[in-house]
Amino acid sequence: MALEVRELIIRATVVQEGIGTGITNPSPGTNNDISNEEELITTCVEKILEILKSKDGR
Predict the structure, then answer these.
(1) Fewer Cβ atoms within 10 A, N terminus or C terminus of the chain?
(2) Which segments of the chain have a pLDDT < 70?
């Protein structure tokens, strides 16, 4: 007998380091990591939007 999953629930908790934990940024020069993360996120969002647009075109 086959089992079909019709709903998938994904939950995530995002915690920003350094707020309320007593952790501070080691030096101002490490902000490059943040820009790399933002660039990665932007790229991922753009690719996802392209995929969604291509599915709408079908």
Answers:
(1) N
(2) 18-34, 57-58
